[in-house]
Amino acid sequence: MLRICAKLLGAPWTRSLTSAGTPRDEYFAAIHHVSNIVRRDFYMERTLNKLRISVTPELVFRVLRACSNSPTESLRFFNWARTHPSYAPTSLEFEQIISTLARANKYQSMWSLVHHHHRLSLSLSLSPAALASVIHAYGHHRHVDHAVAVFNKASLFRCPQTLPLYNALLSALCHNSLFHAAYALVRRMLRKGVAPDKTTYALLVNAWCSCGKLREAKLFLTEMSDRGFNPPVRGRDLLVEGLLNAGYVESAKGMVRNMIKQGLLPDVATFNAVVETLCKSAEEGGMVDEAFRLLNNFTEDGHRPFPSLYAPVIKALCRRGQFDDAFCFFGDMKAKAHPPNRPLYTMLITMCGRAGKFVEAANYIFEMTEMGLVPISRCFDMVTDGLKNSGKHDLAKRVQELEVSIRGV
């Protein structure tokens, strides 16, 4: 295996991946093997030296990305790669290892690497996305002062203070309930001429709603609207999603009802969030009936829901054992809503199989193939085995014949 990897990752691989005569699957299999060595081999450097591979920036980046959940091993691999005279680190690999170490709370190793880069007189520049990941990691680990310091020193990394950096620092402040500082940061954004986006609004609204400060969230949206910075989506939709994220389901339902009474329907994303939250709460509070009524009202008003909107209701009904209601509702949605897609059929077949309803699952397999949707192999196997165990050998044979006709095996 080592000889195969050495051959695949040797000199010919310094060319582009699209070069003729080089199978991509073999190359990525070799990358996977090197990644496993980095993650699991105690004597990593010795094993990698035996491979005698050609260390290229592309190889280093792909391995670092594959090992992003192993920060110590990733750093050892990066240091090993830098010892090769033919390898010169690029900003892509450097940003990847910096982000990996920051997410793992290994800031001492991260800054040691940065200072070493400076001592070598190498030009150090980080993209806004990479520096934002460092700021976000500091905020996640409750190191707000360090997050602010990195933001203020962005110029040292040749990184402009763009919207991603502001949003990352805003997330760090909101995560630590520093709302006054977060609001001051938004005012600084406006003074600097940086226009907020949906993420900016959602961060503050979600933070205020999570603390039960709905009034402050409304005042913030009103003030931003008065300043001429209208959010990319309607303010009420942001408030509904903020209440849902904070767990205030009843308040979100009440706001949606008021919007509908006033003739202001929520947008599709907000409606999706409401229905999905109600269905997820079905096992605890039995709210699936509320989601069912909400979706029916939505269709009666002439709207056509997408599968992502009515799939959570069907799944919740199946989990409660109400398969007849789920089948009936699915039939209504096929007539009134957008056509079901492959993930929806897969979910429905899986739920039927778990409940022992293999005949219904087989019917849905036939139905989706008539629509031009190909069932996954797991569905075929589950339905075929279930039908055979239930004594439905003729129907199982039909399902097997269908799979053979589709896959040709």
UniProtKB/TrEMBL annotation:
Positions of PPR repeats: 162-196, 197-231, 267-305, 306-340, 341-375
InterPro entries, A to Z: PPR_rpt, TPR-like_helical_dom_sf
Transmembrane among keywords: no
Keyword entries, A-Z: Repeat
Positions of transmembrane segments: none
UniProt keyword annotation of Repeat present: yes
Organism superkingdom: Eukaryota
Family named by the database record: Belongs to the PPR family. P subfamily.
NCBIfam families, alphabetized: PPR (TIGR00756)
Name of the protein in its database record: Uncharacterized protein
Annotated organism of origin: Cajanus cajan
